[in-house]
Amino acid sequence: MASKILIADDDDLVRNAVQQILIMFDYDVVAVQSGREVLDQINDDFDVIVLDINMPDMDGFETLDGLNRKKIDIPVIFLTGAGSMDYAVKAINLGAYDFMTKPIEDIEFFHVKIKRAIEKRNFVRHEKNYRLNLEKEVREKTKELAERNVLLEQYGHQLENAAVEVMTSLQTALEEKDEYTAGHTRRVTDYAMLLGEKLGLSREDMVVLRRASQFHDIGKLVIDLSCIQKPGKLTTDEWELIKKHPTVGANIIQPFTFIDRERNIILHHHERLDGNGYPEGIGGDELDTLTRIVTVADSYDAMTSRRNYRRNLSPVEAVAELRRCAGTQFDPDLVEVFCHAVLTEPPH
Fold first, then answer.
1. Domains held by the chain: number
2. Where are the beta strands (DSSP E) in the chain?
3. Which of 126, 176, 240, 249 is most buried per CB count within 10 Å?
4. Among the options 4, 220, 230, 233, which is catalytic?
5. pLDDT, tens digit, for every residue of 207-266?
């Protein structure tokens, strides 16, 4: 397909002569008499614009300025009889591709300039198309990735829900295994959520707190609990066996990376503020707020629940015991909030 060239010159003889030269080189040529006609007829089909400078109404410089405002990126070659250096400099500053004087004495040289201008136009057009195609591809890929991310997120939620359901089943099996711990998990969860609400925890923290409370004793599932059911005090070996359940529980849920925070709480729910707890003997700032909440809730329910080796405490007695151990075993601030809440509006 022949390259398309737009010529503007108010001199009929010159315009026709340039047009014939370009047609001789097999170009598709459109010739007009003024710069205003150039602005009216220009479109993306043209490859080169040849402009005379001295034209009435709108000269070549004004025409190029108009093309620039319309963001036309077609190479412009100025062709003028006034071949001064000032004109050339002004043309180049306006963004003209080249500058030639007329009459055209070297036709081949003129043709070379036209061909180079067409090459630039083709390069610019190719670059523009490449950019547009790239942007389109990026948009499509972004959309595709977004759709995949939605599917992955949905799949991830399904896996999370399945994992939680499995662990819930295990927890139910644990409570059926020991009549004395039946209902313990539900009550600890209720107590922990009550305290979390009173503290104004975020929604995310409340989700973590609920899961950690539900599975805090899951490690007991693989431990022989027959020793708990016997009357009397536990032996040293039996006590050491029981103390393993936080570590065992943390190991059980370790493969589920989406509950890392819950795992940390499960591992540390028998630690103490003074560092004399188990299994790692950490305390103070090493225990986060959610772990401290579960510790209080778990201890309160253990004290108020019936055991075959001791009588259960009343709520008032258990609150007194929590307050007695505040500062050593429990967080004092959390204890006060919990004690007030559990005595005035206990969970049902």
1. 2
2. 4-8, 28-32, 48-51, 76-80, 98-101
3. 249
4. 220
5. 999 989 988 988 887 776 666 666 667 788 878 888 898 999 898 888 777 788 999 999
Tokens 């390069």 correspond to what residue? 123
Q: Residues 122, 234: one domain? A: no
144 within some domain:
no
Q: Are 100 and 78 in contact (CB under 8 A)?
A: yes
301 assigned to some structural domain? yes
For residues 301 and 294, is the Cβ–Cβ distance under 8 A?
Answer: no
**Sequence-separated (6 or more) residues with CB below 8 Å from residue 98:** 75, 77, 78, 113, 116, 117
Q: Is residue 162 part of a domain?
A: no
pLDDT digits 0-9 by tens, 4-30 = 999 999 989 989 999 999 999 999 999
Which residue is listed with tokens 């009588």? 311
User: How far is residue 274's CA from residue 267's CA, in Å, rounded to a whole number?
Assistant: 17
Q: 143 catalytic, yes or no? A: no
190 lies in the same domain as 116: no
The reported pTM is: 0.56
Task: Confirm whether 242 is domain-assigned.
Answer: yes
